[in-house]
Here is the input.
Amino acid sequence: MRVKLKEQSQVLLLAVLFGIFCPGAQAASSGAYEVEAAFVHNIAKFVEWPASVGAKGALRLCILGQGPFGKAAENLLRDKPIDNMVWSVVPVDTSANLRECQVLFIESSEAGNLPRLLDSLKGSPILTVGNTGGYGEQGVIVNFYLEQDKVRFEINNDSAGRAGLKISSQLLKLARIVREAGGMK
Here is the structure.
């Protein structure tokens, strides 16, 4: 019983941390990107990368495509620590070596390139993140969506596993779980 109570309190703490029960998760159109950036920060705390991923003091968040998320992430995450690392937010294009990223945010402007992009990242320990309908079902690991004017997130745990990433069961309890349309890819 004590273990069950401890697990429930951890889930409640995570829910509060992610703003599920607080007004900070309200998605006013101008503030939704800041909420998403805060979610990226908190989600990264509950992802285990393979030991082979050496962050070298920085957790590299690459922003692929055109959109407002990059600016919000840069403003919010600058110098925010996770363990002994700090965020490095870098805009990239498809010619960049995306395998140097630990987290890759894929803007909606890249929707047409998504299948090719995800195929090029197969087997790479990169947490892919987006905020576009259908991204989770196409293989993006974390995808944000709005529900009742609040930012929520879905997780494709199968994609995470194929990338060699382990997502905390506590985090999975807070997410909507999605799978690729048409089965495993």
About this structure: Residues 2-17 form the longest helix (16 residues). Residues 137 and 181 are 5 Å apart (CA to CA). The first strand starts at residue 47 and ends at 48. The helical segments are 2-17, 32-44, 69-77, 114-120, 135-138, 157-162, 169-172.
